[in-house]
Amino acid sequence: MSSTAGQVIKCRAAVAWEAGKPLVIEEVEVAPPQANEVRVKILFTSLCHTDVYFWEAKGQTPLFPRIFGHEAGGIVESVGEGVTDLKPGDHVLPVFTGECKECRHCKSEESNMCDLLRINTDRGVMLSDGKTRFSKNGQPIYHFVGTSTFSEYTVIHVGCLAKINPAAPLDKVCLLSCGISTGLGATLNVAKPKKGQSVAVFGLGAVGLAAAEGARIAGASRIIGVDLNSSHFEQAKKFGVTEFVNPKDHDKPVQQVLAEMTDGGVDRAVECTGSIQAMISAFECVHDGWGVAVLVGVPNKDDSFMTHPMNLLNERTLKGTFFGNYKPRTDIPDVVEKYMNKELELDKFITHAVTFSEINKAFEYMLHGKSIRCIIRMDA
Ligand SMILES: NC(=O)c1ccc[n+]([C@@H]2O[C@H](COP(=O)([O-])OP(=O)(O)OC[C@H]3O[C@@H](n4cnc5c(N)ncnc54)[C@H](O)[C@@H]3O)[C@@H](O)[C@H]2O)c1
Ligand SMILES: [Zn+2]
Ligand SMILES: [Zn+2]
């Protein structure tokens, strides 16, 4: 047992006091884990668009003060009652969506949409007692997607922690906590291209580049990157993207451009933009008879998908995926192994690194589109 087990821990956390205002490094109190909870020492975390989106709080009811952060790697400090799967010292990746292993979804081989621990961006408290484990001078500080990794210590439901190989470097594999697994799984688990097939990837941000990495691993012969921002093309070459299309360079719909490039359509398309137009194009650019399109991007609230039903009757398949269809506890340890045996490349996603005290710089890099991923070191 660690010497801090059962005690309140005082540590540094980056607190968002108000929407859109720089985070402030504060000393906070982190309560011990309750039943089915685990307290984790975070060693590395990185910033994802979802943190920025909820920090800006433009589209949702604001919930502040809050500790953001959901892509991270850490070590178990102590466990609450009833936790048998994890013990102090285990290396873990927190995941914003969980796996209780008991519900219909967890028991189904086909789903990772756990009834109990599915992502809930509105909840700022722990499930068991509706309270926060963070406070400062008695004032509660809200959690974010059950992970709140912008803190040296955090409390997480055991179902939202993947136990991984302790030999895996946490400063790299922390990326598998969210965006990279999402794009990778969208290709490998859902689009499932066969060796030698063509894959179009719409959107060349971190998620799209991870989808391209999946296509490279699957042995795709052509990986066609589609983005409205041509400045992403150079960087995407490192991810195996072989050809580029900017819809703005053409006066016909991009699905037609792709069909002409590929003798009737690509075999697989993975949409990673959040743009409804790109979603429709991604579906309509796949080959009839066998083409599969996978939607990953999160659309705007009022969007609706429109296509002629004939496009489906002509034997095209449209699918959507959440966290790349990976079950966090069951599957993420194996994705870490893919990195360990050099099948999966992660280092190329890391464009920046900052110390915890410089965390606001990571926001700047992302807001200005400079970074794919920026690693934040908690001990510095
Ligand atoms: N389904 C899930 O589980 C899941 C998980 C994480 C992220 N996401 C979503 O995935 C999407 C991508 O995330 P990201 O972090 O890579 O975002 P990002 O903003 O870094 O990248 C999106 C890219 O799409 C491009 N783009 C926008 N509209 C386009 C269009 N009409 N045609 C072609 N390209 C276009 C942009 O120029 C940009 O390069 C987001 O919508 C995000 O919310 C989904
Ligand atoms: Zn994320
Ligand atoms: Zn479940």
TrEMBL record:
Domain Alcohol dehydrogenase-like C-terminal as annotated: residue spans: 206-337
SUPFAM superfamilies on file: GroES-like, NAD(P)-binding Rossmann-fold domains
Span of domain Alcohol dehydrogenase-like N-terminal: 35-164
Major location (coarse): cytoplasm
The keyword NAD is annotated on this UniProt entry: yes
Similarity comment: Belongs to the zinc-containing alcohol dehydrogenase family.
Protein name: alcohol dehydrogenase
